[in-house]
Amino acid sequence: MIPKPLYHKAETIKELSANFADIEQRIQLACQRANRNVDSVRLLPVTKTVDEQVMRMAFELGFNYFGENKVQEALEKSDSMVDLPIEWSVIGHLQTNKVKYIARFATEFQALGSLKVAEKLQERLEIENRSMTVLIQVNTSNEDSKYGLHPTEVAQFIEQIKSFDRLQVKGLMTLALLSNNTEKVRECFILLRQLRDGLKENLPAHMCMDELSMGMSGDFEIAIEEGATIVRIGQALFGARTLPDSHYWPEVSDTL
User: Fold this and answer.
1) 3-state secondary structure 123-171
2) Which of 16, 87, 124, 233 has a CB 3.0–4.6 Å from the CB of 103, allowing a cystine?
3) Structural domains in the chain, sorted by start
4) Helices 154-161, 115-128: crossing angle, 10 deg rounding
5) What are the CA-CA distances from residue 213 to residues 76, 81, 136, 156, 175 (Å)?
6) What are the distances in angstroms from CA 201 to CA 52, 158, 226?
7) Widest CA span in the chain
8) Rounded distance, CA 13 to CA 43, Å?
9) Is 115 left (phi over 0), alpha (psi -120 to 50) or beta?
10) Within 13 Å and on the Cβ side, how many CA atoms surround 98?
């Protein structure tokens, strides 16, 4: 398993600014190694368990797009920070009974991997008269403990949801293998990129395959080298959480 770095908790805007600057520099260096434009990578700060005061500091630093994996936590934060023009990306597994909530407030859903959820989301978005950016989650590591479609299922899934015009399908998302073997980790990212590239043809107008959401605090540089357009980073920005990730997001270990 990838050794877990010591993530110091950012308690002041100065500390938080330094963390963001460090991550942004690392993103820039990874883009240089891959001969990519740094503007082609979006940093998505993951704010699960991060308190409102710290999130408001992040907003002061110029960030207004945050990732949350627990619907209830995201809903509470969106209500309490309604005074700020924040956009919310739901990045965790979604049960059908929670769809009605994210249809109201979320801009983006990154973990679509169920036809039932897609049907419910289309239905609720029609009621709310909204559309939503969605990414299809793919289980590139082939681990039973993780959600997401098997790579061979993605093309058929896209066919099944082509008529769901409220779902603005923009690409794919994955959680890589948690391993100290960086080449095995890299293979997950390569697989997602190759899968995305093969799915680009014959898509309806509300679908495209531009986005690759892959890479977290422990592996985002490898992900960028392999084509990531969104990196989801939490602890490297905000500091270590009190409880392990398994408490908040059972299917992944503590590296987001």
Assistant:
1) HHHHHHCCCEEEEEEECCCCCCCCCCECHHHHHHHHHHHCCCCCEEEEE
2) 124
3) 13-240 (3.20.20.10)
4) 30
5) 25, 25, 10, 20, 9
6) 42, 12, 21
7) 49
8) 18
9) alpha
10) 15
Q: What pTM, to 2 d.p., does this model score?
A: 0.91
pLDDT of residue 247: 46
Return the number of other C-beta atoms located less than 10 Å from residue 142's C-beta.
Answer: 12
Q: Which residues pair with 135 in a beta bridge?
A: 171
Distance (Å, whole) CA 97 – CA 95: 5
Does residue 200 register a pLDDT over 90?
no
Find, among 35, 57, 36, the residue nearest to 45 by Cα: 57
Give me the helix-helix angle, 71-80 and 52-60, nearest 10°.
60
Residues 6+ apart with CB under 8 A from 25: none
The mean predicted confidence, pLDDT, of the chain is 91
Query: Is 256's pLDDT higher than 50?
Result: no
Note whether 174 and 148 are within 8 A (CB): yes
CB atoms inside a 10 Å sphere around CB 200: 12
The residue assigned the tokens 């005061």 is 53
Contact status, residue 228 vs residue 214, Cβ threshold 8 Å: yes
The partner residues of 43 in beta bridges, in order of sequence, read: 231
Distance CA 221, CA 87 (A): 25
